[in-house]
Fold this sequence. Notes:
Blueprint: E1 19-24, E2 28-33, E3 48-52, E4 67-71, E5 76-80
Antiparallel strand pairs: 1-2, 2-3, 3-5, 4-5
Amino acid sequence: xxxxxxxxxxxxxxxxxxxxxxxxxxxxxxxxxxxxxxxxxxxxxxxxxxxxxxxxxxxxxxxxxxxxxxxxxxxxxxxxx
Length: 81
């Protein structure tokens, strides 16, 4: 299983065939993992990926499973399992 590689930041276009865009607005996007990519934090397969350029983010609901966080210079990534 390949992991998301954040060594040079994160560009969703590098994974466009493996992630499905669910929602996007000016500073964030939500994606589904449709190819079994591994989490950059723990290595396990993740279900959903939230990517944000915003300084602050509020979530209305909590996922049922574990949450991992990963950070690049420009983005915060929240991965749910």
